[in-house]
Description:
This protein has 280 residues and is α/β, with parallel strands linked by helices. Helix content is 50%, strand content 14%. A nine-stranded mixed β-sheet has the order 2-1-3-4-5-6-7-8-9, sandwiched between helices.
Amino acid sequence: MASFRDLSRASWGSxxxxxxxxxxxxxxxxQCITDFSASMELMASAVMATGASPAMVHAVxxxxxxxxxxxxxxxxxxxxxxxxxLFSMKVAAAQAEELQKIWVLDPVGAGATKFRTAKCLELxxxxxxxxxxxxxxxxxxxxxxxxxxxxxxxPTSDGLEAAKELARISQSIVCVSGAMDLVTDGKRVLGVSNxxxxxxxxxASGSAMTGLIAAFVSVHPPPRALEAAAFALAIFGLAGxxxxxxxxxxxxxxxxxxxxxxxLASEESLxxxxxxxxxx
Length: 280
Ligand SMILES: Nc1ncnc2c1ncn2[C@@H]1O[C@H](COP(=O)(O)OP(=O)(O)O)[C@@H](O)[C@H]1O
Ligand SMILES: Cc1ncsc1CCOP(=O)(O)O
Ligand SMILES: [Mg+2]
């Protein structure tokens, strides 16, 4: 994959800090439609610890009202996909699109079954602002064949090309997570190298991360969405690095990562000095 330049650009760190402070000041409501048992708790805790306000609202009877009048952003995660929930997801996504609200898709397991891939592509037709998945998911949605990448390693050049292609087709910002996360609008590419490998072993770390992207992008909408998504990935990764100093495995890392997200609010110099974002 192409190299990672510009790591030392000092302003990335201070811009990430300002972005975090804007999330805390605005406390955007992030409506999450996400899988019931695997990710709901960690996602809500991470979004709240970042200073946003999570709302796990998925009943179709209240979605139109809630999305229109309460939500600042919608985060849709297809983890435990079922027809009833899919209907709720589509109603919320269509509503967000119509009202020009930020909505973010986490295509969990895209490529695992034809049904899941097809339904994710139908959701993408409803024009998410951002799509965040791991390399296998993004490659499946771009129509590329993915080789197994089970260890959260660096996205490959095929993964980067798939992300750019998906961004061009969907006109969404596309994020590929891994040891180095990639964020692209199809032309520009940012890389984020904060984080620790153990994050990949936490069930629902990806889902929680996508919730943070929704929070950051809701207060930094396009044309600032590309940078905002990178800031969310970097802040989440930095929280993972700090959490790992106290953790002994994935379960305690999840807890310490959430605590670190909360504590980062008072750590300006630490955030500004340790954020690792660069141009690819
Ligand atoms: N090897 C790694 N090194 C550092 N951070 C990682 C690594 N693998 C994953 N992460 C981080 O863990 C989070 C979840 O990413 P990932 O495991 O790829 O998502 P998913 O759980 O959806 O497959 C992201 O913030 C990502 O940056
Ligand atoms: C295990 C599992 N099964 C369906 S959703 C889910 C969790 C998704 O985890 P992640 O957010 O880390 O991709
Ligand atoms: Mg995932």
